[in-house]
UniProtKB/TrEMBL annotation:
The protein's role, per its UniProt record: Nucleoside triphosphate pyrophosphatase that hydrolyzes dTTP and UTP. May have a dual role in cell division arrest and in preventing the incorporation of modified nucleotides into cellular nucleic acids.
Name the record gives this protein: dTTP/UTP pyrophosphatase
GO MF, any single term: nucleoside triphosphate diphosphatase activity
Record's keyword terms, sorted: Cytoplasm, Hydrolase, Nucleotide metabolism
InterPro entries according to UniProt: ITPase-like_fam (IPR029001), Maf-like (IPR003697)
Residues in coiled coil: none
Catalytic residue list: 74
Lineage summary: Bacteria, Bacillati, Bacillota, Bacilli, Bacillales
Compartments, as annotated in UniProt: Cytoplasm
Length: 200
């Protein structure tokens, strides 16, 4: 167990949110953003898509190392069966938020951890329902003017100013942020890395 605790941890993501969440766990890790293809089969279920993409991202980075635990993650927003990605511009962000306001949508976050040494992997996902409060066009435009929606799936960030748009959630908050922390700790533990021990 002690040997595994020294295994390098690599985050296959450029997301500041995921970086901050790993830092909050007290883990020592390096960033290595994935360049994996993120296209997917729209016939697949959201839970299948986020798991496939999370694994693909982790595998893309894992091939660059001889040892280590590589973490890959993918998050998507789904409203009435339709996937809402990152907005291309202010107009698309306005359209997304106009559809989300006053409705309940689901955020899926897929997670994969690959042990580079032997290729073994843990893959899973979490889903959380988000209830967004009714919003006027003026509120939506003011939020978009902050610039926060531009690189976020669904055009909002629950960990930022977007928090004031949300009425309540059903499920795991960190899944909405983009990294299901409890599931990650379970996966790391299966590979012999105890987050509580490392954080001391």
């Amino acid at each position: 167990m002690a040997v595994k605790d020294l295994t390098p941890v690599i985050l296959a993501s450029s997301s500041p949110r995921r970086k901050e969440l790993l830092e909050s766990l007290g883990l020592s890790f390096r960033l290595h953003p994935s360049k994996a293809d993120e296209t997917f089969d729209p016939q697949d279920s959201p839970s299948t898509i986020v798991q496939k993409l999370a694994y693909r991202k982790a595998a893309d980075v894992a091939r660059h190392y001889d040892k280590g635990l590589v973490i890959g993650a993918d998050t998507m927003v789904v409203l009435n069966g339709e996937i809402l990605g990152k907005p291309k511009d202010d107009q698309e962000a306005f359209e997304m938020l106009s559809r989300l306001q006053g409705e309940v949508h689901t955020v899926y976050s897929g997670l994969a951890v690959i042990d580079v040494t032997d290729g073994q992997a843990c893959v899973g996902y979490q889903a959380t329902k988000v209830h967004m409060r009714p919003l006027t066009p003026e509120v939506i435009k003011t939020y978009i003017a902050t610039g926060e929606p531009m690189d976020k799936a669904g055009s909002y960030a629950i960990q930022g100013l977007g928090a004031i748009l949300v009425d309540k959630i059903e499920g795991d908050y960190f899944t909405v942020v983009g990294l299901p922390v409890a599931l990650l700790a379970q996966f790391l533990h299966q590979f012999g890395l105890n987050v509580l021990t490392v954080a001391r």
